[in-house]
Amino acid sequence: MKFVNKLYIFFGVFIFLSGCASNLTGDNYSAQEARKAQTVSYGVVTSARAVIIDGRQRGIVGTVGGAAVGGVLGNKIGGGSGRDLATALGAVAGAVIGQKIEESATRKQGQEITVKLDTGGTVSIVQQVNQGSFFSVNDRVRILEQGGTSRVSY
Predict the structure, then answer these.
(1) Mean pLDDT per 10-residue interval, the chain, length 154 residues
(2) Mind listing the domains of the chain with CATH numbers?
(3) DSSP letters along 62-129, please?
């Protein structure tokens, strides 16, 4: 298989696996969260601002994949002991670049939502934006709490 074809396969797998990142919207539940009671509170949004939720900082897919591609590319440079050095440097550089690509690919658009509860308290929750649907000031919302997880929904 040609080298270029291997690169296309690698990046296709990388993009597919990056898409498997966890979803942090208020509408997604893990299997462990399903069928468990939640505490429900109601309130009004007093503040809402866009934020960025950082991507995976130590992702395995990007680091290992980048190291492999960098090592292969480095191995194509030079000859003899210089090739060994180029392979090692290519693997290290590829790992760093791959990790940065994975972090960027798993970054999410989020929103910090502050809610004045009907009970008088105030809470602020950061969650991923669901399909461009932002909460707005004066929206009537509910806060769902389960364990250490809280979410805002209509």
Answers:
(1) 48 48 61 79 96 69 58 64 66 66 70 96 92 90 92 92
(2) 24-54+108-154 (2.40.50)
(3) HHHHHHHHHHHHHHTSSSTHHHHHHHHHHHHHHHHHHHHHHHHHT-EEEEEEEEEETTS-EEEEEEE-
